[in-house]
C-alpha cells in the first residue's frame, strides 16, 4: 500500500498547482474571453468511481468514494485519493481496496479536528437481496497511510444518510439518517476522539431530524454555542449537545422558512450567516448573530436545482452548481452555474459545464481556489465516472485576454494556530488587499459538512502579514482551514492549510 506523508505546501508545490490550473483552463471546451467575469470549465476528467462523497484532506489531496469502478451502487470495494498537484491523469489517483466490510455508500463523513482522520459514519446494507438498509459501523481513513479501517466503536443507532458536523468543543455530532426503509434515527449521537460515543437521549425528535427531516438534515455550529437546524418542512431549531449533563437540549425557534427539500442546498457563507435555497426558486438569508435567528428574502437562483451544490469560494462568493428542475431527471438540467455575491445579492452566470450533475454529485473547493465538480448517478439519467474543474473569475486577468492572472504566494505560515491569536504569514505584502479563511470541505448529497467562510483582519510590515484569527470556536470550530491572501487585483494565492485548535 502506498504511503503519502504530509508535507507543508512549498513554493514549488504552489507553482505546480498554478500550472495545473492553467492547463485545465486552457483545455476547457467552454473557455471564453470574458473569463475574468464568468470563469471557465476545464475538460471532462476520467474518475475511478462516482464521487458521491468528496473530502479535502489535511494535506490538500481529495478522498472520494461511493460506487464501484463501473458506477454501480456500492462503496464496499474501493475508494480513491486524488492529488491535484500531480495533474489529472491516472497517475494522480491512488485507488485502493475497501477492506472494512462496510458498504460506505451514503454514509456521513468528516475530518476529525484532532487527528485529521476522516470519520465515516453508517452506510448501506443489503438484506434478503434488498438494498438501502443501514449499518451502525464507524470507520476511519488515515490520510498519512492512505488506509481505511474499522474504528471498532459502532454507533448506538444504525444510520443511512446521516449528517455529521464539528462542535465547538471538538466533538462530532451525528444527526438523522434512517435505520431501515420505514424507520428514521431521531436520536443524535456525539463522538469524541479518545473517548467514544454518547447518545443525546433527551433530544430525540421526529420533527427536527427524524421522520419529517431524516435525510442529511442541514445543521451548523452557531455563534451562540448551539447547533442550528433547518428542516424541509420549515421549522428551525437550536440543539445544545452539552446541556443537561451531556444528554442535550432542543428548542424550536420562532423562525419558520418556506418549504424546502432534502436536495436543495444551503451553506454558511459568512460567520453566523446562511444562504438557504427553498422550493419554487426561493432563497433566504438566515442570520444567527442576534438573540434570535432571522431570515431575509432575496431573489432565487433562477430555477429549482434539485441535487445541486452550494460551495463557498475563496473570496466568499457562493458557486451554485448542478441540479435540475425535476429531481434526478434530465428535465430543466442546469449546466451553467450561478455565482451569488453576498455584497449585493446578485448572480452571475458561468459558462456551461459538459455533464449534468444531479443525484450523488459533489462540489469541493480546492486549495488552489478552483472548484471540483464530480459524480452524479447510481442511479440517475447518467452515471458520471468523471469530474470537471471550474476556474473562478478571480483567477483570471481583468481584461479580455482569457489568461490566468499572476498570483500572490504564501511563503510561510504556521501549521497550527488557536483562537484569538495573531499569526505571521510570509508573503510579498505589497498590494495585499484581503485575507480569508475557508473551512476544508466534506461534501455529499448537496451538503458540505462544516464548510464556512471567515474574513480576517491583518496588518502588514516588511514581508510579513500579522493576521488576526477568529476569537471563538463557536464561529470557527476546531479543525482544518484554507488560508488565502489576495493581491490588489483580487487574485488569491494558493492556500495554506492550517489546523485551528
Give the topology.
Blueprint: H1 11-27, H2 35-38, E1 40-41, E2 45-46, E3 53-56, E4 62-65, E5 78-82, E6 93-97, E7 108-111, E8 118-121, E9 124-127, E10 130-134, E11 138-142, E12 147-150, E13 163-166, E14 172-175, E15 178-180, E16 183-184, E17 189-192, E18 196-199, H3 206-209, E19 218-221, E20 227-230, E21 235-240, E22 249-256, E23 266-270, E24 273-278, E25 282-287, E26 294-298, E27 309-312, E28 318-321, E29 336-341, E30 346-352, E31 361-365, E32 371-375, E33 386-391, E34 416-417, E35 422-426, E36 434-439, E37 442-444, E38 447-448, E39 453-456, E40 458-461, E41 464-468, E42 479-486, E43 496-500
Parallel strand pairs: 34-43
Antiparallel strand pairs: 1-33, 2-33, 3-4, 3-37, 4-5, 5-6, 7-8, 8-11, 9-10, 11-12, 13-14, 14-17, 15-16, 17-18, 19-20, 20-21, 21-22, 23-24, 24-25, 25-26, 27-28, 28-29, 29-30, 31-32, 32-33, 35-41, 36-39, 36-42, 37-38, 40-41, 42-43
SS-based class: mainly beta
Identify the quaternary structure here.
single chain
Question: How many extended strands?
Answer: 43
Q: Compute the gyration radius: what is it?
A: 21 Å
Q: Cα distance, first to last residue?
A: 31 Å
SS strand fraction: 35-45%
Q: Please report the number of helical segments.
A: 3
- Major sheet size, sense and barrel closure: 6 strands, antiparallel
| Poorly predicted ranges | 1-31
Level of helix content?
Answer: under 10%
How do the strands of the widest beta sheet line up side by side? 6-5-4-3-37-38
Arithmetic mean of pLDDT:
94
* Tertiary shape: globular
Amino acid at each position: 500500500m502506498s504511503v503519502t506523508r504530509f508535507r507543508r505546501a512549498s513554493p514549488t508545490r504552489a507553482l505546480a498547482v498554478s500550472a495545473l490550473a492553467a492547463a485545465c483552463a486552457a483545455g476547457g471546451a467552454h473557455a471564453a474571453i470574458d473569463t475574468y467575469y464568468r470563469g471557465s470549465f476545464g475538460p471532462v476528467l476520467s474518475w475511478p468511481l462516482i464521487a458521491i462523497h468528496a473530502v479535502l484532506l489535511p494535506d490538500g489531496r481529495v478522498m472520494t468514494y461511493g460506487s464501484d469502478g463501473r458506477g454501480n451502487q456500492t462503496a464496499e470495494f474501493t475508494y480513491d485519493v486524488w492529488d491535484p498537484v500531480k495533474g489529472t491523469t491516472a497517475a494522480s489517483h491512488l485507488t485502493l481496496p475497501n477492506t472494512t466490510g462496510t458498504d460506505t455508500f451514503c454514509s456521513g463523513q468528516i475530518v476529525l479536528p484532532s487527528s485529521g482522520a476522516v470519520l465515516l459514519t453508517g452506510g448501506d446494507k443489503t438484506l434478503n437481496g434488498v438494498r438501502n438498509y443501514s449499518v451502525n459501523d464507524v470507520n476511519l481513513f488515515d490520510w498519512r497511510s492512505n488506509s481505511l479501517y474499522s474504528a471498532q466503536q459502532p454507533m448506538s443507532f444504525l444510520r443511512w444518510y446521516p449528517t455529521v458536523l464539528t462542535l465547538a468543543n471538538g466533538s462530532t455530532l451525528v444527526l438523522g439518517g434512517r435505520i431501515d426503509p420505514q424507520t428514521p434515527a431521531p436520536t443524535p449521537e456525539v463522538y469524541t476522539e479518545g473517548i467514544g460515543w454518547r447518545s443525546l437521549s433527551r433530544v430525540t425528535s421526529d420533527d427536527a431530524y427524524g421522520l419529517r427531516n431524516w435525510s442529511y438534515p442541514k445543521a451548523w455550529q452557531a455563534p451562540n454555542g448551539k447547533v442550528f437546524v433547518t428542516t424541509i418542512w420549515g421549522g428551525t431549531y437550536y440543539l445544545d449537545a452539552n446541556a443537561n449533563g451531556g444528554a442535550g437540549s432542543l428548542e424550536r425557534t420562532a423562525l419558520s422558512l418556506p418549504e424546502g427539500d432534502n436536495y436543495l442546498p444551503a451553506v454558511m457563507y459568512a460567520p453566523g450567516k446562511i444562504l438557504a435555497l427553498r422550493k419554487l426558486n426561493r432563497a433566504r438569508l438566515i442570520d444567527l448573530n442576534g438573540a434570535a435567528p432571522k431570515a431575509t428574502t432575496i431573489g432565487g437562483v433562477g430555477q429549482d436545482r434539485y441535487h445541486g451544490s452550494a460551495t463557498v469560494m475563496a473570496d466568499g462568493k457562493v458557486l451554485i452548481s448542478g441540479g435540475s428542475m425535476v429531481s434526478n431527471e434530465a428535465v430543466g438540467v442546469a449546466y451553467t452555474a450561478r455565482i451569488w455575491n453576498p455584497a449585493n445579492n446578485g448572480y452571475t452566470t458561468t459558462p456551461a459545464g459538459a455533464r449534468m450533475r444531479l443525484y450523488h454529485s459533489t462540489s469541493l473547493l480546492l486549495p488552489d481556489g478552483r472548484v471540483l465538480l464530480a459524480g452524479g448517478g447510481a442511479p440517475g439519467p447518467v452515471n458520471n465516472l468523471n469530474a470537471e474543474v471550474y476556474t473562478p473569475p478571480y483567477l483570471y486577468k481583468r481584461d479580455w485576454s482569457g489568461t490566468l492572472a499572476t498570483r500572490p504566494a504564501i511563503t510561510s505560515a504556521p501549521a497550527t494556530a488557536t483562537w484569538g491569536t495573531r499569526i505571521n504569514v510570509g508573503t510579498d505584502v505589497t498590494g495585499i488587499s484581503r485575507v480569508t479563511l475557508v473551512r476544508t470541505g466534506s461534501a455529499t448529497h448537496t451538503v458540505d459538512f462544516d464548510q464556512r467562510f471567515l474574513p480576517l483582519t491583518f496588518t502588514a510590515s516588511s514581508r510579513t502579514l500579522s493576521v488576526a484569527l477568529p476569537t471563538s470556536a463557536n464561529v470557527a470550530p476546531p479543525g482544518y482551514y484554507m488560508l488565502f491572501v489576495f493581491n490588489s487585483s483580487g487574485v488569491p494565492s494558493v492556500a495554506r492549510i492550517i489546523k485551528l485548535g
